[in-house]
Amino acid sequence: MNDRPAAFSQSGDATANVSPPEVAAVRAGEDLDWDRLAKYLTSLPELREALVDIDGPFSVEQFPNGSANLTYLLHLGATSVVLRRPPFGRIAPGAHDMKREYRVLSRLWRSYPPAPRALHLCTDIDVVGSDFVVMEYRRGEVLWGQLTPSMAALPDASRRVGRATVDALAQLHILDPSECGLGDLGRPEGFVARQVDGWAKRWELVASESEATLMGDLAVALATQMPETQRTSILHNDFKVDNCQFEPGNPDRVSAVFDWDMATLGDPLIDLGTLLNYWPDPSDTADDKPITPPGLDRMGLPTRSEVVEHYSSVTGLDGSSAPWYEAFACFKTAVVVQQLYARWERGESKDPRMADRGAWVAPMARRAARILERKPT
Questions:
Q1: Which residues fall within 8 angstroms of residue 368, CB to CB, at 6 or more apart?
Q2: Separation of alpha carbons 377 and 288, rounded Å
Q3: Domains of the chain from N-terminus onward
Q4: Is there a contact between 69 and 51 (Cβ–Cβ < 8 Å)?
Q5: Nearest residue to 257 (alpha-carbon basis) of 134, 116, 120, 163
Q6: pLDDT score recorded for residue 20
């Protein structure tokens, strides 16, 4: 296939090998009413109880590397917190659910150490124009396609990073949702079928004519080949290497996992499929490379088959149906990419990276179809 976009990577630069900054100045058009927000936050008793010294200068930076929710680093006096809100403009039904993110992170941190603690949910849209969540800020390192300087000289660091990422996912999936206070987070019965149907309908809302047949045929194939669910677990629903944070100099432990607004209860292999969909492998051809930060395919991570094997060894789940879950994840990602591009076309996104996302849909759909043709391992 020769029509794969040159910038087929999350950072939008196929050749870059420099980690993007953790925070940056707020993008043009994505400022909020900072004065109003500062007054609101410093008036909250729960923040004053949970944090130290929030009186003092107020300043804001933005986490620039995500593609959907707007995430800001707020400095309140001597303390820093993270604020997350949905993107501006029209959004897909059920997406960017701040209430869900707060519900999960206000409880899960007690049972799952990588979950940051949510401190406050605001549903008064007069404050910043939408619901938003305030959560603790954890310092650490995200690997955007290469080892950080603190890890680069450590023995076997890349494979250790890969194993730790899989461990973090597996440890989430072996939790008892009820013991975490999340036993009613979702409706696990029929979850996979609803996912396939729901994402097919989301595609229809933003479908482009050029990919309509390709994506429609893929949705039908996924629906007719669904595997049986083995277990109900807490799902992150967007689990990947760059949604994990590591302690500096420690490739063996994920210290934080980000982006919980789609968390739910359901088939845990949905999360495994997502991870595989974002995971490079030496067997990848030029036609079948997944979307990854530039350089991740050269970092030396374990292979995808090793990921499945290790995940299965920790969870006790049968990973033979992993190709179906990986194909579904690729289909779902293609829908998300089209949603992002549609928002750009409508003028609702100010992020220039979104301008070329529409060109990614067809290559991803063809990749998903090829994955679905694999025989179970």
A1: 218, 327, 328, 330, 331, 334
A2: 19
A3: 34-136 (3.30.200.20), 157-372 (3.90.1200.10)
A4: no
A5: 116
A6: 62
Nearest by Cα to 292 from 4, 3, 64, 11? 11
Count of C-beta atoms within a 10 Å radius of residue 349? 24
Task: Write the CA distances from 208 to 320, 338, 347, 361, integer angstroms.
Answer: 34, 8, 17, 9
Q: State how far the Cα of 36 lies from the Cα of 72, in Å rounded to an integer.
A: 15
What is the pTM (predicted TM-score) of this model? 0.88
- Which are the contacts of 334, defined by CB distance < 8 A and separation ≥ 6? 203, 211, 215, 360, 361, 364, 365, 368
Task: From 298, 20, 11, select the one nearest 158 (Cα to Cα).
Answer: 298
Contacts of 54 (CB under 8 A, 6+ apart): 41, 42, 47, 48, 76, 77, 78, 79
With tokens 């296939």, the residue in question is 1
From CA 180, how far away is CA 165, in angstroms rounded? 21
Q: Contact, 232 vs 269, CB < 8 A? A: no
What DSSP character marks residue 247? -
Q: From the DSSP assignment, how many helices (H) and strands (E) are in the chain?
A: 11, 9
Q: Which residues of the chain have pLDDT under 50?
A: 1-17
pLDDT value at residue 8: 36
Torsion sign, CA atoms 287, 291, 293, 299: negative
d(CA 20, CA 208): 31
What CA–CA distance (Å, rounded) separates 271 from 328?
A: 11
Alpha helix ranges (H) inside 148-257 = 157-173, 191-206, 212-224
107: which 2 tokens?
A: 């409880």
Predicted local confidence at residue 93, as pLDDT: 60
